[in-house]
From TrEMBL:
The modification N6-(pyridoxal phosphate)lysine is found at residue 258. Its cofactor is pyridoxal 5'-phosphate. Binds 1 pyridoxal phosphate per subunit. Belongs to the class-III pyridoxal-phosphate-dependent aminotransferase family. ArgD subfamily. This is Acetylornithine aminotransferase. Homodimer.
Length: 401
């Protein structure tokens, strides 16, 4: 199947886009006008299977009726108040997130700071680390933590960092997954170690088994905070509430965003134990963070994942998807990695961007975080039949480039 290339309404809208929007993302590959469940429609009327979910955002698919209902009900009751005040919705979401983060350490105190995005959640985390009385931070090679200056200082990609230097300082990068390399630079001058449980932007890279527990042990030994960035991996994406929870650890700081609001912008920085009280009155702030509409979206997402048993479903769907791609035995597929419904298809040649373009032309939205890796992050509700349709098309897509 090949769809109409963007010639009609899309071509016109693309030209308007490039004439009005800053060119930070390159020209848009498509202009989408509608979404429902796991499908998207472009401005020329073509339908796509969304296997990227707004980059791990639309966990419950597009236009989920209950999320819409929760957002509309909150918006028509109380849409916003300043952070001089609170709302029951915000408090309810705070309690839920704190409980999720401390699930491996019941009774451990936790507090949340709400934001509108992942990078802002990490800025809040960054400020918490500065309140430890130490300034050194350790981040990982291959990391991605966001584009604002603090989060960028923790992001390893030189192409993202270098044009904006000087960035907030005292950050050391070590190889991801290498506990000996971490142990070598870790001492009691280190405020925090930040890592992703799976590096999504780096091409869905997982550390060796036992690594997270070891990092927990090493950081605790020197009184450094363990800061886990769950912005992409959290809220069920990898089959657990937190991708890090299966390893039994509890972070001192845990950040969330992408999957939390199903598209409504919301992020959260949860801190536990002594870190939970390092930011006091006046030390940080936000106008929109904690907005009750965002909180209503977050509560709806958490409630639906729980009610529909989606964590178990994500485990099963993810395993089945990986197994069926592996079973293709295609010569251009090296292996499939990742967990739950965050998967990287590792190719034997640097053709992933071309494969993603071919997929789009055939009606599948995927992406290529690395030249050799295709990333799949479909809505958590994706039916097996839709995943099978993609797997059946994949050999043809790989052969076509
Ligand atoms: C996307 C992402 C961020 C940044 O989130 P934004 O909402 O784009 O600011 C931070 N950390 C990780 C791991 C991410 O994947």
């Amino acid at each position: 199947m090949t769809l109409t290339p963007p010639v009609g309404a899309q071509a016109e809208l693309t030209s308007q886009y490039t004439g009005s929007v800053m060119n930070t993302f390159g020209p848009p590959k498509r202009v989408f006008v509608r979404g429902e469940g796991v499908h998207l429609w472009d401005a020329d009327g073509n339908r796509y299977l969304d296997l990227l979910a707004g980059l791990a955002v639309n966990s419950l698919g597009h236009a989920h009726p209950q999320v819409i209902g929760a957002i509309s009900a909150q918006l028509s009751t109380l849409g916003h108040v300043s952070n001089f005040f609170a709302t029951p919705t915000q408090i309810a979401l705070a309690e839920k997130l704190d409980a999720l983060v401390t699930a491996n350490a019941p009774g451990l105190p936790a507090r949340v700071f709400f934001t509108n995005s992942g990078t802002e959640a990490n800025e809040a985390g960054f400020k918490i680390t500065r309140r430890t009385g130490r300034t050194r931070l350790i981040a990982m090679d291959g990391s991605f933590h966001g584009r604002s200056l603090g989060a960028l200082a923790l992001t390893s990609n030189p192409a993202y960092r270098e044009p904006f230097e000087p960035l907030p300082g005292d950050v050391t990068f070590v190889p991801y997954g290498d506990e000996a390399a971490l142990a070598e630079v870790l001492d009691d001058t280190v405020a925090a170690v930040i890592l992703e449980p799976i590096q999504g932007e780096n091409g869905v890279v997982e550390p060796p088994a036992g690594y997270l527990a070891k990092v927990r042990e090493l950081t605790s030994a020197v009184g450094a905070l363990l800061w886990i960035d769950e912005v992409q991996t959290g809220i069920g994406r990898c089959g657990d509430w937190l991708a890090s929870s299966a390893s039994g650890v509890t972070g001192d700081i845990v950040t969330f965003a992408k999957g939390l609001g199903n598209g409504f912008p919301i992020g959260a920085c949860v801190a536990t134990g002594p870190a939970a009280t390092l930011l006091g009155p006046g030390s940080h702030g936000t106008t929109f963070g904690g907005n009750p509409v965002g909180a209503a979206a977050g509560l709806a997402v958490l409630g639906i994942i729980e009610r529909d048993g989606l964590l178990q479903r994500v485990h099963e769907a993810g395993e089945r998807l990986a197994a069926s791609i592996t079973a293709l035995g295609h010569p251009r597929i090296d292996h499939v990695r990742g967990r739950g419904l965050l998967r990287g298809v590792v190719l034997t040649e640097p053709i992933a961007p071309a494969v993603a373009d071919a997929a789009l032309a055939a009606g599948f939205v995927i992406n290529a975080p690395r030249p050799t890796v295709v990333r799949l992050a479909p809505p958590l509700i994706v039916p097996d039949a839709e995943l099978d349709r993609f797997v059946a098309a994949l050999p043809g897509l790989l052969d076509s480039v």
